[in-house]
C-alpha cells in the first residue's frame, strides 16, 4: 500500500487491518445514519459473524431481511479486499441502474471517510468504477451477461439478486462463472421476492448441500434494536402481515 502518513504506529495499524477485515471494518470504517449522520461502523454481532463467513467461505448466499445493514457490511469488506490486495477486480451488481450508482457511491463515500494512512491513491472514480493505484478496482453493473466487462473477477457481490428477472439472473451466472478464477469469491444477498426466483432456488439448493454456496439465513430478530414484539407489531400495523413476511420474515420460505 502507498500512504501519505507512513509512521511506525500507522505501519502497525495497517498490518492489523491487513490481517483482519473485521478489525478494519470495526475500527476504521464509517457509515451514514439518517438519524445521526456519519457515524463509526460498529457492527452488531450477526454482522460480525457475516464478515467471518464471507472471509472463510469461497461462496456465500444470504437470505436477508429489510434494513439489516448487510449491504454496508459487504461494501466494507469489498473496500478492505481491494485496498489490501493488488491487481484484483471486484464486480458489484444490483437490479437497476439507479441502485448500481448508489452502490458504488456508498463504497466511494466509505473510502473517503477512512483515515488517510489507510487510503490508496484513487486513479479512477465515476458512476461505473472505482480504481486504485495498486491495480485493484471495483466495477458496478446491473445483473447481465456483460457485467464483468471482460475482466477476470476475484470477488463478486450481487445485492438484491432476487429482484432481477430470472432470465437476467441466469444470463449473469452463465457470464460470470467463466470470468472467475479458482480462488474467486462470490456473495449473493437478497430479501426474497414475492415470486420464486433463481435466488430462492440457489438458496434452497445450498441448504440441501446441492451447490457450492454456504447458506446464511438471517432473521429479523438477529438485529438487537429490532428484536422485540413491539417492533414487529408496529411494522405490521403499517405494511400488513404479508408485507412483514416479505420484508422482514426472510427466514420463511415461499409456500
Description:
By secondary structure, this protein is an alpha/beta fold. It has an eight-stranded mixed β-sheet with strand order 5-6-7-4-8-9-3-10, sandwiched between helices. A two-stranded antiparallel ribbon has the order 1-2. It has eight helices and ten strands. The termini are far apart. The protein has a single domain, classed as Rossmann fold (3-Layer(aba) Sandwich), CATH 3.40.50. It has helices spanning 8-19, 21-28, 45-56, 70-83, 97-112, 166-176, 198-207, 229-247; strands at residues 30-33, 37-40, 59-63, 89-94, 122-125, 129-132, 137-142, 153-159, 180-190, 214-217. Strand 1 and strand 2 form a beta hairpin.
Termini separation (Å)?
A: 50 Å
Q: What is the β-strand count?
A: 10
* Major sheet attributes: 8 strands, mixed
Number of domains: 1
- In CATH terms, what is the fold-level topology? Rossmann fold
From the helix content, strand content and strand pairing, which structural class follows? alpha/beta
Q: How are the strands of the biggest sheet laid out side by side?
A: 5-6-7-4-8-9-3-10
Q: β content, as a range?
A: 15-25%
The shape, in one word, is: globular
What is the assigned CATH homologous superfamily? P-loop containing nucleotide triphosphate hydrolases
- Low-pLDDT residue spans: 251-255
Average pLDDT taken over every residue: 89
Secondary-structure element sequence? HHEEHEHEHEEEEHEHEH
Assembly classification: single chain
Taking all Cα atoms into account, the compactness measure Rg is 18 Å
Helix content: 40-55%
Number of helices: 8
Top-tier CATH class? Alpha Beta
Per CATH, the architecture is 3-Layer(aba) Sandwich
Amino acid at each position: 500500500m502507498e500512504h501519505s502518513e507512513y509512521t511506525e504506529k500507522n505501519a502497525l495499524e495497517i498490518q492489523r487491518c491487513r490481517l483482519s477485515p473485521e478489525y478494519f471494518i470495526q475500527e476504521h470504517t464509517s457509515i451514514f445514519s439518517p438519524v445521526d449522520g456519519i457515524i463509526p461502523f460498529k457492527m452488531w454481532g450477526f454482522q460480525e459473524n457475516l464478515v467471518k463467513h464471507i472471509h472463510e467461505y469461497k461462496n456465500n448466499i444470504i437470505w436477508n431481511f429489510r434494513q439489516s445493514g448487510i449491504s454496508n457490511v459487504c461494501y466494507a469488506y469489498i473496500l478492505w479486499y481491494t485496498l489490501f490486495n493488488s491487481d484484483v477486480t471486484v464486480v458489484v451488481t444490483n437490479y437497476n441502474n439507479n441502485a448500481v450508482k448508489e452502490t458504488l457511491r456508498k463504497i466511494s463515500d466509505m473510502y473517503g471517510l477512512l483515515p488517510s494512512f489507510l487510503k490508496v491513491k484513487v486513479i479512477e472514480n465515476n458512476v461505473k468504477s472505482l480504481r486504485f493505484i495498486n491495480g485493484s478496482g471495483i466495477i458496478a453493473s446491473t445483473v447481465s451477461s456483460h457485467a464483468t466487462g471482460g475482466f477476470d473477477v476475484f470477488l463478486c457481490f450481487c445485492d438484491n439478486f432476487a429482484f432481477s428477472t430470472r432470465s437476467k439472473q441466469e444470463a449473469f451466472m452463465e457470464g460470470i462463472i467463466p470470468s472467475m478464477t479458482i480462488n474467486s469469491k462470490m456473495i449473493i444477498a437478497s430479501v426474497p421476492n414475492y415470486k420464486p426466483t433463481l435466488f430462492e432456488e440457489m438458496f434452497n439448493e445450498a441448504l440441501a448441500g446441492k451447490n457450492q454456496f454456504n447458506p446464511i439465513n438471517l432473521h429479523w430478530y438477529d438485529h438487537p434494536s429490532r428484536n422485540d414484539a413491539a417492533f414487529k407489531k408496529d411494522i405490521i400495523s403499517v405494511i400488513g402481515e404479508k408485507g412483514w413476511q416479505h420484508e422482514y420474515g426472510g427466514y420463511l420460505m415461499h409456500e
